[in-house]
TrEMBL record:
<feature type="compositionally biased region" description="Low complexity">
    <location>
        <begin position="41"/>
        <end position="55"/>
    </location>
</feature>
<protein>
    <recommendedName>
        <fullName>Lipoprotein</fullName>
    </recommendedName>
</protein>
<keyword id="KW-0732">Signal</keyword>
<feature type="signal peptide">
    <location>
        <begin position="1"/>
        <end position="20"/>
    </location>
</feature>
<feature type="compositionally biased region" description="Polar residues">
    <location>
        <begin position="25"/>
        <end position="35"/>
    </location>
</feature>
<feature type="region of interest" description="Disordered">
    <location>
        <begin position="25"/>
        <end position="55"/>
    </location>
</feature>
Length: 191
């Protein structure tokens, strides 16, 4: 009789241990699953932010963001200086939406919640080479020359302290260099 009770008690204890272990694994799996979802959501949100805009005061970050594998909008958060030429390349669409118009923006300013410009920044570069169609420099100052090799170049409230040279007459004709009182202090020519 005692051996039957010990066997029953042993079986019950083993069952409790097995069920407890299963329950623990299940909770760990749920926690891992939840953590994975949170991590995926965080990564996804982070990736969306990265793919939709690049915001920095570091020349190497901005240069990469303006490149072929960069972003549709690039924003400086302070004055920035490049030691070598920077090329704006690749085809991008407004707000990163491939069904939207081809558009690319360099924002050299900060704004408040009401979209009022609160600061403007200067990009100093030997030459900014524009190969992206419909590239728009908004506010701030570019100290250096700009070579335009694409249609639809726009200066919107921006100042260029240097020359703007167009590779073809077609590019010059399609450009807007005086939107919102934008100005070029140097020569505007066609190669």
């Amino acid at each position: 009789m005692i051996s039957k009770k010990l066997i029953t008690l042993g079986t019950l204890a083993a069952t409790v241990l097995v069920l407890g272990a299963c329950n623990s694994d299940s909770n760990d799996t749920k926690a891992s699953s939840s953590d994975s979802k949170t991590e995926a959501t965080s990564t996804s949100s982070s990736m969306d932010a990265v793919s939709s805009a690049s915001v920095s005061d570091k020349p190497e970050v901005l240069e990469k963001a303006l490149g072929e594998d960069g972003n549709w909008i690039v924003a400086a958060t302070a004055d920035v200086t490049f030691d070598s030429d920077v090329t704006v390349a690749g085809e991008f669409h407004d707000k990163g939406d491939s069904s939207a118009d081809i558009y690319r923006k360099l924002a050299l300013y900060a704004q408040d919640a009401d979209r009022k410009v609160t600061a403007e920044y200067t990009m100093t570069v030997p030459e900014l080479v524009v190969e992206s169609e419909n590239f728009n420099i908004v506010n701030g100052t570019v100290k250096g020359n700009i070579l335009v090799k694409a249609n639809g170049f726009v200066l919107n409230g921006a100042k260029v302290e240097g020359n703007v040279t167009f590779e073809k007459e077609e590019y010059k004709t399609s450009a807007t260099l005086d939107k919102e009182d934008a100005e070029v202090t140097g020569d505007i020519t066609v190669q």
